Amino acid sequence: MKKALDHIGIAVRDIHESIQFYTEILGGTLVDHYRSEAQGVESEVAIIDVDGSRIELLMPTNNDTSPIARFMKQKGKGVHHIAYRVDDLDEALQELKQQGIRTLEDTRRINKHGCRLIYLNPADTEGTIVEYCDYPDHIN
Q1: Which site among 58, 94, 105, 109 is 20 to 30 Å from 39 CA-CA?
Q2: Cβ partners under 8 Å of residue 40, min gap 6
């Protein structure tokens, strides 16, 4: 199955300073800025477009339960995940299963933009947090 880089997620401590850096210094455009208190997300998210490439800035809103907060306690701020867009998430998950790659089922969800996503188990991805996503209601 074809995969394309969709976005890079970056864990940040101050989302407003990070937005300023990505828009004023790197020349990006703020596409969306929202807060998600959904279980397993608990983050403020800013989507930045930098010349056709997307960056997701992720700041934890709950330091006890946010997976971004846990990540930052272990590794600090910086690149959190790399997301790959697939044509069909269900088909891609079947392919992963056949290849012996596990997913983190509790991360499967649909975000506010209609993107279906799931994270792969970092134990099976050389330690990198990898997200698979698709946009079933959009033309790819």
Answers
A1: 94
A2: 67, 106, 107, 109
All domains of the chain in start order, with CATH: 3-134 (3.10.180.10)
| pLDDT digits (tens), the chain, 140 positions | 899 999 999 999 999 999 999 999 999 999 999 998 887 789 999 999 999 999 999 999 998 889 999 999 999 999 999 999 999 999 999 999 999 999 999 999 999 889 999 999 999 999 999 999 999 886 54
Under 8 Å between Cβ of 93 and 24: no
Q: How far is CA 67 from CA 74, 103, 106, 134, in A?
A: 11, 16, 12, 21
Which sign does the torsion angle of CA 12, 14, 20, 25 carry? negative
